[in-house]
Amino acid sequence: MMQTTKSWTQYILLACLATLVISPLESSQAEAQQGLYHLSLSLFDRVGLPDRVLRTMRKEIEGSYANIGVHIQMEIYGPSVPSVPSLKAPTVQVLLWPRDGTLFQVSDKTMGLVLLKAGQAPESAYIFFPAVVRALTQGRRKSVADLTSFELGRALGRVVAHELIHVVAPRHPHSQHGLTQRALTKEFLSSLRPAKLDPIAVKAFIRSLQNRTPLEAEALPTTQALSRQ
Question: For residue range 89-119, what is the model confidence (pLDDT) as tens digits?
Fold first, then answer.
């Protein structure tokens, strides 16, 4: 996983992504006292994955954060959706992208990328689908066709969960183990054991959620415009 600073033009380019809306749960005073948060995630799948893969990915993302008292409510939109709707809320943006990260001058092995703009909190991240597949198919496997829906969905969910940490808590460094480790290996992405956040990452994530300020998201460019950049 990598973070980098890019020009303002590339930062605006990143706006055509999935939208993560962050707000405290208001259902009861008891929940507020427990520090529970509600994250509404609109995931834009530009790869066109089967429903079976998307269901597994959703379960992995939701489960990773449910363990720390954060409820994620996801909306998934396919390639036919031309743009991200305008929202007025604190937002973070994520895109499941069908190409590798060489557009942003990073290795084709990079699975996720958060672009940073000096002086501003990050709002966006890419998930590079070919790099995730490449990590899973090391060894005897040769292509995405050799992966089950469960294997692919679980791995994608873990990469998304990792990048959400970078977007929400960009100052938190990588750890030695768990979802915030620097290199998400084939073994980690394929493990049947639940992926967890370490206690320091949990504290940083919750603190950053509490400190985020509302932003107004304008109408975002179409997929076609994004592809021409």
Answer: 545 678 899 999 998 889 999 999 987 776 6
Whole-angstrom distance, CA of residue 134 vs CA of residue 142: 9
Q: Is 141 exposed, middle or buried (0-12, 13-18, 19+ CB in 10 A)?
A: middle
Residues in the chain: 229
Closest CA to 3 of 136, 101, 133: 101
Q: Which helix or strand (DSSP H or E) is residue 172 part of?
A: none
- 185 contact partners, CB below 8 Å, separation of at least 6: 135
Alpha carbons 142 and 91: distance in angstroms, whole number: 37
CB 72 within 8 A of CB 52: no
Q: Which stretches of 117-228 are assigned E, i.e. beta strand?
A: 124-128, 216-217
